[in-house]
Amino acid sequence: MRSKSPELKEKIKEFIIKFHKDNMRDPSTAEIGRGLSIDKSTAYRYLVAMNKEGMLDYSEGRISTDSTMKMDENMTAAPLMQDGIMCGAPETESSDIDSYVQLPTALFGSGELFILHAVGDSMEDAGIDSGDLLVIRKTETARQGDIVVALNEDGENTLKRLKYDAGLKRLVLHPENTQRGYDDIIPDKIIIQGVLSSVIKRFS
User: Fold this and answer.
1) How far, in Å, CA of 153 to CA of 155, rounded?
2) In tens digits, what is the pLDDT along the chain, a chain of 204 residues?
3) Host domain of residue 56
4) Which residues are marked as active site?
5) Is the pTM here over 0.85, yes or no?
6) CATH no. for residue 53?
7) Is 33 helix (H, G, I), strand (E, B) or coil?
């Protein structure tokens, strides 16, 4: 087995620290590769080796060094999911992580958070537009009136308000767009995956 270059190890560590400082998140192996003109697979192998040697911590896509951990003391790492959450008809659940985003705990709180892209217009009356970033607090329980990420028994997820329908005598997933007049979603079973915590707007 070929030994790993000590010089490249130091360059990778320095790149990670600078990238984290500039972007407030961990770099991906592809970003390390592009930044240092090495293959993505080479970056991965070096990260694994550096983890074993104690130069950094590399686990489940997260990279931590002594320097980045100090930066993260007042931050919460939230995975940014590759696929969006439908504000419309439900779509099949996807759990692929695109990257991690550092969120200030003073603004977003602590705990287990994840971020989704909003897709569709069914929650416009709640101030949620297609393209918004949705900060979701992971939980399996919610209160009536919460805006939730919900999964039904068919593996489809959507973002709607959890509402009690007095006529049906049950909870439903309620869209909020009076102009479009979307119908409530009434699955046999509602599985809560998280509750909306914050909406991050993008202005172009």
Assistant:
1) 5
2) 467 899 999 999 999 988 887 877 788 899 999 999 999 999 999 999 999 999 998 987 788 888 777 766 777 878 888 777 766 555 545 456 777 787 888 889 888 899 999 989 999 999 999 999 999 999 999 999 999 999 866 777 899 999 999 999 999 999 999 999 899 998 888 999 999 999 999 776
3) 6-64
4) 122, 160
5) no
6) 1.10.10.10
7) helix
